Amino acid sequence: MITIIDYGMGNLFSLSSSLMRLNAPFIITSDPEVIKFSEKVILPGVGEASSAMKNITNYGLGEVIKNLKVPVLGICIGMQILCNRSEEGDTECLNIFPSNVKRLCGNGIKVPHMGWNRAFNLKGNLFDDVKDGEWLYFIHSYAPEVCDKSVSYTQYGEIFSSSLQNKNFFGTQFHPEKSGEAGEKIISNFLNIK
């Protein structure tokens, strides 16, 4: 069973709709015991990093998430809280991805970064049959730095990690559930990872 973690920070409708289109059975829960025995886990997120980490702590999910051995996909804030730390609220995160999350900056850019942008240097199973330079949907003000676990990058002002992978943990700064056919392919690829 696929588990979507509900920790009070996700817009779950789009993600649920995407999984239903793929005929993928799922549950939405914050129960640590259910999460521990899932086949795949998705950690969505919309909002602000310090609030997200506070909720993760309040739900008792930090260690549960860190100890998962099944494929885990963090989306947007869900990916950011898998990083070392975030400038947003000066937040210590779960330290799964060796990257720090920084506020977007650069000459002439508007923050938040909102809309379609391209992801380059796609690596790994998450991007099987997705073309390099694919257009994907973003909405964020902070993003992880490029590091040795980056599996795609995007430029908006400066270059940032638009996706990360460390062992069984995957993360996307973009919203695959809002990224049309390419995004649906990325979710399908995640569901097929063993």
Brief characterization of the structure:
This protein is an alpha/beta fold.
Description of the structure:
The structure is a single chain. This protein is α/β, with parallel strands linked by helices and 194 residues long. The chain has one domain: Rossmann fold, CATH 3.40.50. Helix content is 24%, strand content 34%. It contains six helices and 13 strands. It has helices spanning 12-21, 32-36, 49-58, 62-66, 77-80, 180-192; strands at residues 2-5, 26-29, 40-43, 72-75, 83-86, 91-92, 97-103, 113-119, 134-140, 142-144, 150-156, 158-166, 169-172. The strands form three sheets. The protein has a seven-stranded mixed sheet. Strands 6-5-7-10 form a four-stranded mixed sheet, with helices on one face. Strands 8-9 form a two-stranded antiparallel sheet. Strand 5 and strand 6 (91-92) form a beta hairpin.
CATH superfamily: Class I glutamine amidotransferase (GATase) domain
SS-based class? alpha/beta
Beta-sheet strand percentage?
A: 25-35%
Task: Write down the overall mean pLDDT.
Answer: 96
- Compressed to H and E, one letter per element, the order equals EHEHEHHEHEEEEEEEEEH
Radius of gyration: 15 Å
Overall CATH architecture: 3-Layer(aba) Sandwich
List keywords for this structure.
globular; alpha/beta; four-stranded mixed sheet; 34% strand; 194 residues; 6 helices; seven-stranded mixed sheet; Rossmann fold
